[in-house]
Write a structure and sequence with these properties.
There is one protein chain. This protein has about 290 residues and is an alpha/beta fold. The chain has a single domain, classed as TIM Barrel, CATH 3.20.20. Helices cover about 40% and strands about 15% of the residues. The strands form two sheets. Strands 1-2-3-4-5-6-7-10 form an eight-stranded parallel barrel, surrounded by six helices. A two-stranded antiparallel sheet has the order 8-9. Helix 5 crosses helix 6, helix 6 packs antiparallel against helix 7 and helix 6 packs parallel to helix 8. The longest helix has 17 residues. It is globular.
């Protein structure tokens, strides 16, 4: 834990992966990399996780990296793109793969698509391109889990990979309902599979955004994860995800649940990607949690 901010709880350490180059931030890559290095030595250092970048932008990092840069690499080229992306990363001085993220695109055969990802990951490990401890997140499609969705989650869990859930975006359709998000969380925990989230979680508490969309809160997600681990049913989990009273949610986090217990839930809800680090930091401070 960083000495310059000793008050932050392990419940929030390295919670936010730096996705500054993604919408709606859309920061130029060179500016985003410089800002990331500054963040890692600044007051919000304990919150900052890896730097999120697409596989198609890896070559653009050449000449920009001045220190060790942990990357979460988003694979856009399908399972066949895993080894080539890692090969490029290996040739760039200073960077290391801290995580891989890949979405399943074959909605007619999600389980088969998941098996292809597993095979590609195994191949990358056999080629010494991917260390065993690097987390691999498989993004399942949005919506109420179907038999195919659950079968794909089974494949991911059996291979000891992780899940990724999309919790927002530039369109209303990218924001899942509390029922769907709750069912994803429960499905992950039923399989003892860690997960991360992406998009839409800039703020701690559920709210109506200026864009007119209903935004989930990262504190809601963490509290819902803890509730599910404690045996809460789906209706209770949905209720936690839907809570809009930040003061009440923060009081529950501190007093009813406890930050130590909330921190243990981070084994399962590992992080979320955000184009802003300042907004999550601000919200935690406002709620008296950092």
């Amino acid at each position: 834990m960083a000495d310059n901010n000793p008050s932050i709880s392990p419940a929030f350490a390295a919670l936010v992966d730096d996705a500054a180059i993604y919408p709606p931030g859309n920061a130029p890559l060179d500016e985003a990399v410089r800002a990331h290095f500054l963040r890692r030595v600044g007051e919000n250092h304990p919150l900052v996780g890896s730097f999120v970048i697409g596989d198609h932008q890896l070559n653009d990092l050449v000449g920009l990296v001045t220190d060790s840069l942990p990357l979460s690499i988003v694979i856009g080229a399908g399972a066949g793109g895993i080894a080539p992306a890692l090969s490029i990363a290996h040739r760039i001085g200073g960077v290391r793969a801290a995580g891989l993220e890949i979405a399943l695109r074959d909605h007619d055969d999600l389980a088969g698509n998941a098996r292809r990802v597993v095979a590609a990951v195994d191949q990358a490990r056999d080629l010494a391109l991917l260390d065993d401890e690097v987390a691999v997140y498989v993004e399942l499609p949005q919506g109420t889990p179907t038999h195919g969705w659950l079968s794909a989650a089974d494949v991911v869990a059996a291979a000891e990979l992780r899940l990724k859930f999309r919790t927002g975006g530039m369109d209303a359709d990218f924001f899942p309902s509390t029922a769907d998000l709750g069912s994803w969380i429960i499905a992950a925990l039923d399989r003892e599979t860690p997960f991360k989230c992406t998009a839409g979680l800039h703020n701690a508490v559920r709210h109506s955004g200026a864009d007119g969309f209903e935004h989930h809160g990262f504190l809601n997600v963490l509290m819902a994860t803890r509730a599910s681990l404690d045996g809460a049913d789906s209706r209770t989990v949905q209720g936690v995800l839907g809570e809009r009273d930040g003061a009440l949610l923060a009081a529950d986090a501190r007093d009813s649940v406890g930050l130590d217990a909330l921190g243990r839930a981070r084994r399962w809800f590992t992080s979320f990607g955000s184009c802003s680090i300042a907004e999550p930091e601000h919200d935690l401070c406002e709620l008296g949690l950092a």
